[in-house]
Amino acid sequence: MNRAASATPDVGRHTVRAYTPADSAAVVDLVVAAGMFAREEAGFLADGVLDADDDGGTCVVADAEDGRGLASVLFYRPEESSDRGFDLTMIAVRPDLQGGGRGAALMRHAEDDLRQRGQRLLVVRTSGTPQYDRTRAFYRGLGYAEHSRVPDYWTDGDDLVVFSKRLDGETHDGR
Ligand SMILES: CC(C)(COP(=O)(O)OP(=O)(O)OC[C@H]1O[C@@H](n2cnc3c(N)ncnc32)[C@H](O)[C@@H]1OP(=O)(O)O)[C@@H](O)C(=O)NCCC(=O)NCCS
């Protein structure tokens, strides 16, 4: 795991720490509870994809204050063919804890980490369905702008929506 993710900063009142392989079952429970995957689809997350790597892929988690597993998880990794572009691959907050600022705290943590690492752009891919209305509002509220849609990408009637944010203070030159 890279330097920034191994720290344990107190982001707001939510302490973020580096993911370890011992968290894999709790991450699966969390993303299933958050409605991102069916349980039978989520097993790949326990196969090492979230582990430390040398490419800069970073997974962080926050423990729930009530001791019941994880409150949140965030995973971001480099876009291989991009100049210092990163992809926000996964973010989830335990359903009964949503709306309490945990998601925003994780996003700020990732952005600060990437800025410190000299990265340029963070890209988010999500869904255009009504189920994800609040998720899209979440990204907009954090300064992410919608830049493209691919109709029927995830499945028929479920568009890919791409948001991004410059991390280097630059703009997209009017686009
Ligand atoms: C999207 C998600 C990560 C946001 O984290 P969060 O901790 O709930 O969000 P925060 O409390 O930091 O931010 C609140 C804002 O997020 C948005 N939001 C998104 N989902 C929300 C939810 N379930 N409850 C409350 N607010 C939500 C709202 O715009 C809200 O702003 P408001 O308070 O002005 O209405 C989280 O709700 C979640 O895990 N959702 C299900 C999984 C998901 O959609 N993941 C992203 C896939 S691309």
From TrEMBL:
The keyword Acyltransferase applies. Pfam families: Acetyltransf_1. InterPro entries: Acyl_CoA_acyltransferase (IPR016181), Bact_Acetyltransf (IPR050832), GNAT_dom (IPR000182). Residues 14-168 form the N-acetyltransferase domain. Signal peptide: none annotated. The keyword Acyltransferase applies. Transmembrane segments: none annotated. It comes from the Bacteria. GO terms for molecular function: acyltransferase activity, transferring groups other than amino-acyl groups. Keywords: Acyltransferase, Transferase. PANTHER family: AMINOALKYLPHOSPHONATE N-ACETYLTRANSFERASE-RELATED-RELATED. This is GNAT family N-acetyltransferase. It comes from Goekera deserti.
